[in-house]
Recover the amino acids of this structure.
């Protein structure tokens, strides 16, 4: 590891500020947990992009989930980190305290059992996540269909990483010199799906694993490219990432879901960056079976999660950070999820120490 | 929600596998990775096996774990 850091220092020496962005919440947390920001040269800045699916989910989605949770005939099944995401007026954990039937699951397939055990209820899974998680929801729908389960539904708001990278690459104010690409998204979609970043935008990208050494290796590979003036997509997570990704997962995903325009918190509407269920599976789509209307509510807060997610500011630049907005009582979504940028900053801090 | 770990496939019944990680066993669906075989190490995310982990990586992890438990360092010889 020392050698990796030494080489990073050597390559960074004498260069202007280099901004490298990670676009995966697990990378964000790992970078902080291992103190990687702290041992990098002064001029190498790591900024966090929209890599936490919870954080980029809009209020409106949470409001819908809350609406469903208020119905006595519905059970909400969700990953635990969605519970405390603030909607416009409330959050799911508050609803749970008020008596709504909200169950935390580890896997979407756990919902099959809940649905089978509660035939008179509609079981709604909050299907959020990126390409890594999206195929698991799709496979669950196929399994439900095969098992003849008719009371399991998805409330879908999955997002796709490449279209967001495109927006970040086009937006010159982000000033990104290189992307640390998300390892587990790449497991599914493959390194080929990121090629456009290098060919169209001339920005280097390296797929990285999640251990400290793997992240440093990926950062070193990025710096080597910058030093050589190259822009390529490289794979530093070869143990599980292939060029074409997981073909079965991609096939199952596209059997159930199709792309659609989607709203990202902080980035706004991005064309073809979200997923919706295909017409063929509308029996499993709660928004088709039991549509709910939610009124768009504009919250007035000083929260700057939007700018944090684009790498324009760091969390301490936000007036709420660490004051009104803390992990147990978060104002913005970036503080809610353990994978959120603000939560990571709050827990681990942003100081520097020298690595002798 | 994103928590992926490598686990060994112990048993397969239909499209459901029993996988083991650090002595903990649980079920993982093979719907997204039908090619997985007993004895493979697979990356498990949200209850689904997502990819077979390459043998070299698995051996390195095993060597590092053994080292943590007092065995001499062998990981460099694997590279």
């Amino acid at each position: 590891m020392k050698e990796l850091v030494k080489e990073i220092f050597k390559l960074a020496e004498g260069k202007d500020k280099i901004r490298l962005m990670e676009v995966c919440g697990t990378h964000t947390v790992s970078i902080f947990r291992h103190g990687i920001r702290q041992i990098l040269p002064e001029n190498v800045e790591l900024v966090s992009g929209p890599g936490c699916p919870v954080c980029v989910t809009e209020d409106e989605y949470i409001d819908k989930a809350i609406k469903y949770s208020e119905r006595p005939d519905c059970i909400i099944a969700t990953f635990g980190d969605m519970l405390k995401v603030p909607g416009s007026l409330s959050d799911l954990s508050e609803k749970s305290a008020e008596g709504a039937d909200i169950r935390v699951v580890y896997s979407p397939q756990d919902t099959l059992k809940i649905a089978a055990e509660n035939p008179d209820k509609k079981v709604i899974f909050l299907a959020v996540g990126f390409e890594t998680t999206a195929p698991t929801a799709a496979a669950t729908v196929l399994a439900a269909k095969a098992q003849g389960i008719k009371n399991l539904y998805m409330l879908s708001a999955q997002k796709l990483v490449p279209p967001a990278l495109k927006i970040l690459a086009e937006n010159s104010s982000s000033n990104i010199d290189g992307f640390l690409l998300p390892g587990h998204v790449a497991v599914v979609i493959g390194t080929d799906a990121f090629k456009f970043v290098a060919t169209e935008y001339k920005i280097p990208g390296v797929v990285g694993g999640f251990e400290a050494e793997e992240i440093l290796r990926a950062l070193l590979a990025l710096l080597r490219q910058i030093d050589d003036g190259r822009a390529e997509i490289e794979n530093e997570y070869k143990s599980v990432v292939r060029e074409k990704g997981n073909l079965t997962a991609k096939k199952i995903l596209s059997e159930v879901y199709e792309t659609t325009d989607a709203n990202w918190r902080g980035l706004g509407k991005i064309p073809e960056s979200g997923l919706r269920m295909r017409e063929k599976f509308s029996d499993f789509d709660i928004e088709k079976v039991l549509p709910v209307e939610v009124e768009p509510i504009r919250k007035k807060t000083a929260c700057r999660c939007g700018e944090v997610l684009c790498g324009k500011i760091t969390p301490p630049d936000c007036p709420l950070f660490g004051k009104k907005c803390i992990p147990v009582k978060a104002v913005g979504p970036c503080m809610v999820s353990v994978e959120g940028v603000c939560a990571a900053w709050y827990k681990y801090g942003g100081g520097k120490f020298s690595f002798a | 929600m994103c928590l992926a770990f490598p686990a060994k496939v112990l048993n397969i019944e239909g499209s459901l596998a029993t996988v083991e990680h650090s002595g903990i066993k649980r079920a993982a669906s093979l719907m997204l990775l039908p090619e997985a075989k007993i004895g493979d190490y697979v990356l498990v995310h949200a209850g689904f096996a997502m990819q077979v982990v390459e043998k070299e990586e698995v051996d390195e992890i095993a060597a590092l774990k053994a080292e943590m438990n007092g065995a001499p360092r062998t990981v460099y010889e694997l590279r």
Observations:
- Helices of chain B lie at 55-68, 75-78.
- The CA atoms of residues 11 and 60 of chain B lie 23 Å apart.
- The first helix of chain B runs from residue 55 to 68.
